[in-house]
């Protein structure tokens, strides 16, 4: 009695209607099934065998289209988060640093390094802090009475610094032993 009550439960997984599900084709199960012997794969050849698929883009040994056409474009992963800003675009700003450039939408929020370049007439003095500046841009800023606070380079980790392990061990042994 208890088993019959649990089998009669109604749920989304128990709902069925005729024709919604189709029995899968069972191939290679004898002549009478209609798909026996070669199992619907035809006779011989690469496609009839297991693992006999042809790689995508393969053109029978001919040079494939994706290798024939000319290649172009390159996106450096090194410079993905660094940008260059022209001095004439920021000439009206009295103070320039990374946060101010992001706030004025001169650079994107993902940018981590900026370099200012260009030579132009700067009308008012500006202070540049924490940003790399080219020689020409630095001269233009200082000519207008502004100043550039230099960016200190990050210290190099000791494990990346090459050290010479050569020591002067070419002293003759006889010279050390005899005082004469």
From the structure above, extract its key features.
elongated, Ribosomal Protein L15, Chain: K, domain 2, three-stranded parallel sheet, alpha/beta
Outline the fold blueprint.
Blueprint: H1 2-7, H2 65-68, E1 82-86, E2 95-96, H3 98-103, E3 113-117, E4 127-129, E5 132-133, H4 135-143, E6 147-149, H5 173-177
Parallel strand pairs: 1-3, 2-4, 3-5, 4-6
Descriptive notes:
- This protein is of the alpha/beta class and 180 residues long.
- The protein has a domain at 82-149: Ribosomal Protein L15, Chain: K, domain 2.
- It is built from five helices and six strands; from the N terminus they run H-H-E-E-H-E-E-E-H-E-H.
- The chain has helices at residues 2-7, 65-68, 98-103, 135-143, 173-177, and strands spanning 82-86, 95-96, 113-117, 127-129, 132-133, 147-149.
- The strands form two sheets. Strands 1-3-5 form a three-stranded parallel sheet. The protein has a three-stranded parallel sheet with strand order 2-4-6.
- The protein starts with a helix and ends with a helix.
- The mean pLDDT is 85.
